[in-house]
Structures are given as structure tokens and as C-alpha cells.
Sequence to fold (217 residues):
Amino acid sequence: MPLPVLYSLRNCPFAMRARLAIYASSQQVQLRDLVLSNKPVEMLKVSPKGTVPVLVTTNNQVIDESLSIMQWALSQSDPDDYLDATTANALADMLAVIEIFDNEFKGYLEQYRCAKRYHEPSLIEDRQKCERYIADLEFRLCLHPYLMSDKPSLTDLALMPYIRQFARVERQWYLQSPYPKLRQWLNHYLQSRMFSKVMTKNPMWLDTKEHIVFGNN
Fold:
């Protein structure tokens, strides 16, 4: 039986969160890992913008935004209720938090990472811009174990790759920073079977054309 095809890049945070949601949905896809310097013609035909992730469903629907792929996957199957289907306005609340990080935090995070990489004098200032958002997550995690409630949600999966990047910029500072709940939350994901499966290193699809099945199996 044919599977949806997912074009992905192992360390891209957007591709990562798409894979997280697919894994959480207990579905399977045909995974095609790539490098951005060598994009498959097959992917560019269906999504000319040339960014990952790109999902092609079994009925040839093309979804090339990571958050849309997450919602698609969990709308097909959501065994652990990541969309919190029984709570009114839950999805809207999740999407509102994710939007802030996608539209605001992401830019500050990139500035912070560049400041560290190129030894720019704005490093501390750039980190402090990120911390405004990190402090909000710490506050949320002081109220409950996950970002939205007592159980994991779409928000946790969508933001985890960002926080993983943030934690790696100044590792020693992060380990001593005043965000113990955030560290605990991130470690929970980094040490999980889900993350191990999501981050498995596969051969590049263009090199082998190997049929690799990814999913919770």
C-alpha cells in the first residue's frame, strides 16, 4: 500500500517538528532525507520554493509548511490527544503560542546563534531578547509539566526544536541559567524514544533511492 512521501532534512527544526508529529500520530511515511545543496527534482516539481519539509499525501495533496504537516498528521490520527480535542479553544490557544515563536522568537534565535558563531559583541543582548520568550515557557512549566497543560500537546512538539537550538548556543550558560523547568522539559524529549527515532540518521535519498519507512512502528 502506498505511503505519503516526506522530504526532510535531519537537523532542520521545521522538518524535525513535522517528523515529531508524524511519529506521535502513529502513522508511517516514506522518508526522503536530503541536503539543501542537492534538492530532488521530484520535490521541486511539487514544491518549487525548495524548502523542507514537504509532504505529498497518497492522494497527491502537497503540504509544504511544517505546522500544516503537523496538523495534517494529527488530524489523521491522534492517539495521545496532542490536539486536545475535548477542550474548547484548545487548538486556537496552541496555535497562538506557536505563532509567537514562529514569527518573533525565531528571528531573535537566529541573531543569537549568529552572534555566537561570529563572536559578535551583541551576544548577551541577543540572548536576552530570546530570554523574554524563554521566561514565559519557564512560567508555564512551573504551572504544569507541559507547555499548555498536564499532558503534551502540539505546542510542545512544535517548540521543542527551537529550544534545542537555544540550549546549544551557549551550553555552559544554559546549564546554569534560571530555567530549571525548561531544562527538565527539554531533557524529557531529548532522552525519549520518540526523539531517538525522529533523529535516526538515514542515507540520502538521492544517493540510494532507498525506500525508508518512518513512523511509530
